[in-house]
Amino acid sequence: MKKTAGFSLIGIIIAVVAVVAVGFVGWRVYDANNNPVQEANDSSTPSSSPTEKDQTTYLTINELGVRFKLSEEIKDATYSVKTLNDGSQVATFSTAALTAQDAECNAGFGPLGSLEKTTVDTDRFGNKKVVDNVTIFKINDNYYSYSSPQALCSEKIADTESGYRLALKEALKTIEAIR
């Protein structure tokens, strides 16, 4: 009668498969919990706040603690907020009109650009932020930086997107803390 000592080939294969399966499940759970960009809100609609003489429409971004006045051109603005690994938050912008022209042009894509909120006074390259109240704003202890989008969301809206983007940049000049 022959005795075998140690592990059989089948036993080793089963052990390796079990370790790989547990590792894969662990990696997926870790990745889901530590994803660099996490959606906080898909979109929000503008709110109206009365002024003394007329109704002014504001886009209120509760997640960033700010609001700004919207012109007639972008009164249907929407936004999506993401939290980055470093703790900063980024709102990306679109309008209902752009999304209606092409679903790819939604706020998650950010065809009108983005607004990042951080407490750090340097950019990602280590340069000190210079508050110009056009693209970089300081409200209380927070810095807000506007960035133009890196690409068009669709060729269908190429002619109209720049006008909306300019309207948003003008609107951001009225940014203020939520009261």
How is the secondary structure organized here?
Blueprint: H1 9-33, E1 38-41, E2 47-50, E3 55-61, E4 66-69, E5 77-83, E6 89-95, H2 96-101, E7 114-118, E8 136-139, E9 142-147, H3 158-172, E10 176-177
Antiparallel strand pairs: 1-5, 2-3, 3-4, 4-10, 5-6, 6-7, 7-9, 8-9
Question: What report would you give on this structure?
Answer:
- The chain is of the alpha+beta class and 179 residues long.
- The chain has one domain (38-177).
- 26% of the residues lie in helices and 28% in strands.
- It is built from 3 helices and 10 strands.
- The protein has helices spanning 9-33, 96-101, 158-172; strands at 38-41, 47-50, 55-61, 66-69, 77-83, 89-95, 114-118, 136-139, 142-147, 176-177.
- It has a 6-stranded antiparallel β-sheet. It has a 4-stranded antiparallel β-sheet with strand order 2-3-4-10, with no helix packed on it.
- The longest helix is centred in the N-terminal third of the chain and has 25 residues, at 9-33.
- The model is unreliable at 35-43 and 48-52 (pLDDT under 50).
Supply database-style keywords.
about 180 residues; alpha+beta; six-stranded antiparallel sheet; four-stranded antiparallel sheet; 10 strands; elongated
Gist of the model:
This protein has helices at residues 9-33, 96-101, 158-172, and strands at 38-41, 47-50, 55-61, 66-69, 77-83, 89-95, 114-118, 136-139, 142-147, 176-177.
